[in-house]
């Protein structure tokens, strides 16, 4: 018997759930949590408002019942959340989950922690690293955090068996584009896959400008001039990164062209904020509150009906509209540090 697939208005199934575990972070990347707005007086969510591990697990189980196969934990900085390995163990125990991954700045990734996460059932890790030049990276994270410590976190992840590791670099023209080729060069010849991400207009606080976006095409050209690359087939439908390999066998890189070549047509991702709001698009201005429903005692079938209704009504395709109309004006977009990447 064929499974009834839940689809949205654009016939997209629900396959991925990104779970933000906290809105806090120990970095202040200017494009995500600029210091001027996320300073000492910023009011982060109180602990009581965050979903508990039990609540996250219950929601994840319901989402898996609706077709979700991949879970990604993010934030803010997810490694700030205590006992993360416990949560991973709980999520790994859900029947039907095929993949659990984590997006992190790796600043807190000791060998011990990496091993505990792996043992609990974490399959993969993505590390954000916006430059290999120390001065550039320190300026970008705006807390003076050194590259060497992130590389140590990457080594710890590798030693724990979380390899191949994906390394995300958000490219901002005039800020870190001089570091594209050195970054590629550093990880060439390793099993790790560097992915260059176009700087996006998420949130309202980063002062995004189109002229700061460097299209992936240009990134590929720069790398190709140094070490020739050729495109690879996508691993699966809906893969967000375009894959390339070095012709000489030096490994693989990826391009995430959210601005120049949006991929809304295949977007099967839902996002859950740390306080339990569901967003059907990274650029949504409003979420659907699940936490209050949980805490008011809703049973599974009520929650499932609520979630199905949300997904069936979904018609988001912000990035496609942005490109066609140059700019979509909406001043109430949600911040990346709140919703997770
Ligand atoms: N703190 C973790 C980290 O940095 O990996 C997880 C959360 S962070 C919001 C997730 C990803 O979103 C990071 O790779 C970050 O570089 C990316 N990101 C944040 N703001 C972005 C923007 N405006 N454009 C593109 N990527 C962005
Ligand atoms: Fe923190 Fe990640 Fe945002 Fe940087 S991108 S401020 S590390 S949440
Ligand atoms: Fe998905 Fe929204 Fe991004 Fe399009 S803009 S790919 S719908 S999250």
Q: SSE order, as H and E?
A: EHEHEHEHHEHEHEEEEEEHHHH
> Termini separation (Å)?
36 Å
Ligand set: S-adenosylmethionine, iron/sulfur cluster
Strand content range: 15-25%
**Class inferred from helices and paired strands:** alpha/beta
Number of helices: 11
Q: Which residues form runs of ≥5 with pLDDT under 50?
A: none
Radius of gyration, CA atoms, in whole angstroms: 19 Å
Q: What does the model show?
A:
The chain has a domain at 16-166 and 265-339: TIM Barrel, CATH 3.20.20.70. With 341 residues, it is α/β, with parallel strands linked by helices. It has helices at 53-65, 84-92, 111-120, 134-141, 147-159, 180-187, 216-226, 291-295, 300-313, 318-325, 336-339, and strands at residues 16-20, 70-74, 99-104, 124-128, 166-171, 193-198, 229-231, 242-246, 252-256, 269-272, 277-279, 288-289. The protein binds S-adenosylmethionine and iron/sulfur cluster (2 copies).
Question: What would the keywords be for this entry?
Answer:
12-stranded mixed β-sheet, binds S-adenosylmethionine, TIM Barrel, 341 residues, 11 helices, binds iron/sulfur cluster, 12 strands, alpha/beta, globular, 30% helix
In a few lines, what is going on in this structure?
The protein is 30% helix and 16% strand. The protein has 341 residues and is α/β, with parallel strands linked by helices.
